[in-house]
Amino acid sequence: MESRTASERPEPGNSYRTPGLDIGRVMGRALHAADAFRRLSQEDTDRIVAAVYRAGFNNRIPLAKHACEETHLGRWEDKVIKNVIATRYVFRDIKDLKTVGVVAEDKDHGVVEIAEPLGPIFAITPITNPTSTVLFKILIAMKSRNPIVIRPHGSAADCSVEAARICAEAALGAGAPEQSIQWVKRSTQEEALEFMAHKQTAMILATGSVSLVRAAARSGNPSIGIGPGNVPVYIGMSADVPFAVEQIVLSKTFDYGTVCASEQAIVANRLRADEILREFKKKKAYILNKEEIRRLEPVAFNRDQKVMRIEVIGQPAAKIARMAGIDVPSETSLLIAPLEDVGPDTPLSLEILAPILAFYVADDFEQAIELCRLINRHGGLGHTASIFSNNEERIRYFASAMNAGRILVNTPASQGALGGTYNRLRPSLMLACGTSGKNITTDNISARNLLNIHRIARRQVNPCISPDFLPEYLDEANDVEAIERKCPDAKAAALGDL
User: DSSP of 432-449, one letter per residue?
Assistant: First the structure.
């Protein structure tokens, strides 16, 4: 968090204003850029997007290093890969997407779809994925012809602003409107709320704390936020255990667990539990005993605030163990906590963005599903669930039982949920969670979510609504079957044999 001296901190009842920040001016510039964006062609737009992609990708390494140096979270090598997903994978997914003018035409039904930009976007970006989220949000905003204002996390402001600056310079060089990419390096939470509620804000893209995401939803303006991801992973009886463990370690150690889709709890069948733990030990995981779990809990989780402690986020397992007074080898990859209960009284069962995994043992498949559902309900509704299995029937049942927008199969969850890597999900740094997570969609958010689609509808009169036929609806003797016989148009025929 941004620190202030005593004289800079707002006193109770007073409203501190960041020096030099004029919210109305920022949004006025964004609105002017939005007007200019509407005049650009698809060719103009695609040229800007390609330039931003090249600039972001070519700076992927220095931006990753900058993020690590500033935030002290994660591994720069893994942040490079996040930057690659945010640029190359996203660009390849959206580069051929039509976002200007007519984007679809249904001649049979006389409907033409026209894409229109939304207007100024206010984008909140996090400390865990600072540069990659900035690169991603700018890229999809440019593709949809929307100006964007970046509001970074205070502890990742420098690297986030540098990412935005690189993109802005490239965009302007390719013909983007002036002020189409802006950033607010320092702002209070109250000022962020003003941006969200501003009359010129067309959309909020909120990636940050739960409180900020909820504030975005209450702002009075449209918003797309993301929820927490308390991700359960079930290792089934048909799973290849060495492969499953390898993939989970690959995922949970990726940037030291800072991806919200990283696995949080393993659920194993009792018949395979010992085998699974042996495999984890081969991968240098450390299995905690009850006393060590007791010592780790207050270090990893703040019970009073009911949130993970920022001190452990994105830190290596051995460092976290030392913080808890637990002696582990320096090369330890993960800390695994065998647990029985789920919920606030068992803090390690909740979302912790660090190389810490809960471990549960189930007597059978039904109990395993219930455990996964319980974990999912405690902070992960609508987000992601993972299964390692080679039984298609069990995979389908697991998918139907879980309340998750992404059901990942035999896949490292961190990388898999981001899309375009181990599957063909849409590449994205915003993983929406549907209505269960208080989102409007379960999509991996991308440029198509930042468009208004206008529809031209040509006159094609349905015979069942003609003046001559309307009296049939007023006749109580006509039931569904009678109406279908008298006016079997295409849509009515679709009802079949009711």
Answer: --TGGGT-S--SB--GGG
**b vs e for 134-167, b when ≥16 Cβ sit within 10 Å of the residue's Cβ?**
bbbbbbbbbbbbbbbbbbbbbbbbbbbbbbbebb
In a domain? residue 431: no
pTM to 2 decimal places? 0.93
C-beta separation of 158 from 186 below 8 A = no
pLDDT of residue 496 exceeding 80, the answer is: no
Distances (CA, A) of 405 to 266, 372, 442, 445: 19, 15, 5, 12
Task: Print the domain residue range for 470.
Answer: 463-493
185-209 pLDDT, tens digit each = 999 999 999 999 999 999 999 998 8
Q: How many structural domains is the chain composed of?
A: 3
Q: Is residue 11 part of a domain?
A: no
Encode pLDDT of 261-317 as tens digits. Answer: 999 999 999 999 999 999 999 999 999 999 999 999 999 999 999 899 999 999 999
DSSP at 237: T
The answer to whether the beta carbons of residues 54 and 170 sit under 8 Å apart is yes
> Which CATH number is 28's domain given?
3.40.605.10
Specify whether 256 is located in the same domain as 140. Answer: no
Joined together, the tokens standing for residue 179 give 């002020």
d(CA 259, CA 253): 10
Q: Which residues are catalytic?
A: 260
The CATH number covering residue 368 comes to 3.40.309.10
